[in-house]
Amino acid sequence: MVSSITLKPSTATQRVSGAYALIDSLVRHGVEHIFGYPGGAILPIYDEVYNAEQKGLLKHFLVRHEQGAAHAADGYARATGKVGVCFATSGPGATNLVTGIATAQMDSIPMVIVTGQVSRAAIGTDAFQETDIHGITLPIVKHSYVVRDPNQMAQIVAEAFYIAKTGRPGPVLIDVPKDVGLEEIDYIPVEPGDVTIPGYAPQTSGDVYQIDAAIALLRAAERPLLYIGGGALAAGAPAELQALAEAFSAPMTTTLMGKGSVNEHHPLAVGMLGMHGTAYANFAVSQCDLLVAIGARFDDRVTGKLDEFASRAKVIHIDIDPAEVGKNRLPEVPIVGDVKVVLEKLLARLSDPAVTPVAPDGQKTQAWRDQIDTWKQDFPLHAPIYADEISPQSVVVELTQQAPNAYYTTDVGQHQMWSAQFLKNGPRQWISSAGLGTMGFGLPAAMGAQTALPDEQVICISGDASFQMNLQELATLAQYNLKVKTVILNNGWQGMVRQWQQSFFGERYSSSNMEVGMPDFELLAKAFGIRGMVVNDPNELAVAIAEMLAHDGPVLMDVRVRRDENCYPMIPPGKSNADMVGLPADKLRPSV
């Protein structure tokens, strides 16, 4: 636990409630939108939300389930880089946030979560709707508080925002007992930046000697590969990444979280690596002689069989979280620091004649780049075309052709992997639950992104099983006329579960068929008062998508896709990245 903040002196006081201090502090920290659901313990806070909305200071979005509030705040944060904020009451309201909090923690998303709590005197008595949400969420937050003294409210809010956004970002919980919200205090505001936290000082700059060691390895490498994760995007380093890649003519691959951190149309881009990554990215990581991990954590969905991951390579690892450096793979050169700051320093030293008098030799990697280009030609991603069925891949391809600059959210499963393979996203335009793999994430996350960016196209790509996890948020889209376009790749299955059951469990399809009880999604949309569409004919797909995108309001499109389509390439469990299934058998693969 971190210690208390230190305030700058202030003599400006006013007599207000603890709830007022909370809302005023949120507004002072730039909060314009809150996603939440009221209840008894949080009513004092909602009374101040009402007053703030009347003054035009912020806007509250009423979700239909608290999990939707957490995912919406998460999507808001991913789309903007700002801190997302959500509210819920005590007991079941607070526990309904847990999956959304864990999702944000796994993907390092900055959020502030405010929960109501029973009055201080009732805590520990098993009062109505009492749960220890502070204790429940300790493993899945960056930090948390129970506000025992309303005089500390402004301090705690300032600290929460600072912690959520700095270092490795993450969610911070503030639990507010009901009587704390009602009690009057002499309120002293705390402005953003007016905090210091003894003992909390994330290392950002990187060690200069380690940076020079990294430059030496990069100069010597003939088969370098930049392996880029979500930390690079959180740091806002797309320009620096491209400059580094071009300086050393080094190919770039991204994780699921790293999508959008590099220009995926760039000739040095090789797409996503890992379980359903491109064949050429996985071959590249198996054959490289230098792996530069940038804001990535060597997670199991990327590495496959860990002891064979980049087994021929030396490793440079750049990350702001010292706990990640060396956790799964010991690097030759560890650099702890903010990705953007470290790369800026590296590039500056590279261009300084006093430090590096000879520019990097781009021809050194020519044979390596030629080999990757050959793999791209031999093992391309494939979107099949069928005469009387719609392939799910073709839906994603059509979307990216008609809406190339949209912000895309996804749920989790086959549709997520097809989207990751075929979409080419700009910075922050890819929003997906990666670490936790949360079904039901896509629709409320799109809601949050659209709230933050009302003039942008926001498209949710979902599956029929995932969509049913949080379909109630269609009501929120309708209430606020959020023009999110949701496309369901409907194959009547829990698609990825079915694929695994087919491949590894003897085609025993236990509890994965979703056909019985599936709603008519077109009628469901109409029941919520929004536009519903259904597409069965591949010849009608392009026109239907154009019609959906042209509609000025939310749309739910049900696309009936080929039922038994599998997502390839795929690395089977326990195999190395080079040992993929679903690739052409007649093409030469690299030796492992």
Question: Could you explain the architecture of this structure?
Answer:
InterPro entries: Acetolactate_synth_lsu, AHAS_TPP, DHS-like_NAD/FAD-binding_dom, THDP-binding, Thiamin_PyroP_enz_cen_dom, Thiamin_PyroP_enz_TPP-bd_dom, TPP-bd_CS, TPP_enz. Its cofactor is Mg(2+); thiamine diphosphate. Belongs to the TPP enzyme family. There is one protein chain. By secondary structure, the chain is α/β, with parallel strands linked by helices. It has 3 domains: 14-187, Rossmann fold (3-Layer(aba) Sandwich), CATH 3.40.50; 208-378, Rossmann fold, CATH 3.40.50.1220; 392-560, Thiamin diphosphate (ThDP)-binding fold, Pyr/PP domains (Rossmann fold, 3-Layer(aba) Sandwich). It contains 23 helices and 20 strands. It has a 6-stranded parallel β-sheet, with helices on both faces. Strand 6 (143-146), helix 7 (153-165) and strand 7 (171-177) form a beta-alpha-beta unit. The two termini are 46 Å apart. Residues 1-11 have low confidence and may be disordered.
